[in-house]
Amino acid sequence: MIAGRYRLLDLVGRGGMGRVWRAHDEMLHRDVAVKEVVPPSWLADHERAELRSRTLREARAAARLNHPTVVRLYDVVPVEGSPWIVMEYVPSRTLQDVLDTEGPLAPPEAARVGLALLDALHAAHTAGVLHRDVKPQNVLVAHDGRVMLTDFGLATFDGGDGAMTRPGMVLGSPQYVAPERAAEGVSTAAADLWSLGATLHTAVEGRSPYARSTAMATLSALAAGPPDPAPHAGPLAPVLAGLLRRDPRDRLDHETARRLLTGAATGVTGPSPDAADRAIAPDDRPDASTDPSDQDRTIPLPEPGRPADRAGPGVIHPPETPPRSGPTPLASRLPTTSP
Prior knowledge:
single chain, about 350 residues, Phosphorylase Kinase, domain 1, Transferase(Phosphotransferase), domain 1, 10 helices, nucleotide-binding, ATP-binding, ATP binding, protein serine/threonine kinase activity, transferase
């Protein structure tokens, strides 16, 4: 029991700097997720203090967001001098877990996942929050089919708390860090969108566009070379090409990415990306006047047992590549009822 209220039940996740527990809120009689920060033993005292500050920053960032595709934050409680974050409990697997156990997604399914994540990022960017660590491990695929973005542990406010980094330090997962962040430590909405592109590349290819044997090799490739090809992207190819552009000024913005993802998900395509792209400047943000309630947040996944087409009519095809067997539809990999 922590804070006299939250009874820890079982461990549901573990990372390099913490653990996530399923717990029961004895006051409101509901299950919650509780994030316990566990600093590595080799950290110096000032680095432990920095980690505690990052935990509070995650809480402040997430508390500013109220969106169906963002895991909600309920409370922050101190335990022996360290903050624990109490969040919405979502029975789920991470996207990385799905890929590891079931293999890559079909492009239309990956596009639907991308639309949910784009909604989450649009809500965050409109609120002035940057995520800074979009990757498959931070994407939840709920048992009821919802797709949600979690873990704002590296998040920052535009014009607020800056990232606590030192020269030569890159926070985040190297395979999903935008080139400008790796080179200069610059965090922008465009950098989050690059990470979205890298996540979708992983979803259809089973590996990130800069997957190498070591973090240093990944950063070297990121600094000098183009992303790895995505031969199985199908209708998702224009989205990946647009989001993974090296220059953030040339990268797809939210609106264009949404149009292309919708086309990839439904098989209905619009104008070519080159004709319709609007570049996003590093300091641009979505229009805060956009009403999220006007947008359909439902992510329609294929019915269990129904095969997912890799390419529908009118879909833009990448150069011809050797065929591979289609992956099992995402919906059929998940339980048909929530626990």
